[in-house]
Amino acid sequence: LRRHEEFYLTGGDLFFLIEQNHFRVHRYFFERESQWFKLQLATPASPGATRQGTSESTAIVLDNVKAASFAKFLWIFYNPKYSLYKARVDDWVAIMELAHRWGFHEVMKLATREIEKLEMPDIDRIVAYHKFEIDRSLLLHRYAALTAREEPLTLEEGMALGMDTTLKIFRAREVARATPAADGSRSPTSASLPAEEMQSLILDLF
Which residue intervals define the domain BTB in the entry (predicted)? Predict the structure, then answer.
């Protein structure tokens, strides 16, 4: 076992153990932000036992969590640059996953705002937003882009999106290509819907 090089903090009063790494952080953030953790930390210890998470020997073990991902998550609370949060898309997705799992709603809002500023493939964004139950209205133009692009979804893309979303996109593509262009022509590869009609189609389906 070893102490995490960045997040074993003097004065921390909450201990976690993840992948042989001890983390020492402040209980305040977890009780303030997450109802799940608030309930976990409020559970009284058995008579005569030391409360869980108060020392290395009683550290809370978090299963199915990578130490690197947990460190990225903690960075939200201990970011030294105040309100400036600069991270890669992959980092924000890792943060979202833990925030969603433990009910850190404000962290989810922050991660969503930041990831909206970054470039991310449409398929990857849709998959992530669905998985973490993010407002689907943010995806309307992503659905529209997949509807309008010439290439149909690949097998791999369809498997990633899931059957429900894949069928809706195929339906949208079918409708968009069945609508005649201004000159009366139809194209099996190009969507000819005006922007307003495309938006209406996507709203109806999604």
Answer: 12-86
SS (H, E, C) 75-88: HHHHCCCCCCCCCC
Asked if pLDDT for residue 47 goes beyond 70, the answer is yes
Paired tokens of 130:
């669905």
Question: Is residue 160 a contact partner of residue 177, using CB atoms and an 8 Å limit?
Answer: no
Alpha-carbon distance 150 to 140, whole Å? 18
Q: How far apart are CA 182 and CA 174, in angstroms?
A: 18
Residue 189, amino acid: T
Q: Is the pTM higher than 0.70?
A: yes
Residue 78: pLDDT above 80?
Answer: yes
pLDDT digits (tens, 9 = 90+) for 55-76: 999 999 999 999 999 999 999 9
3-state secondary structure of 55: coil
Q: CA 161 to CA 89: how far, in whole Å? A: 19
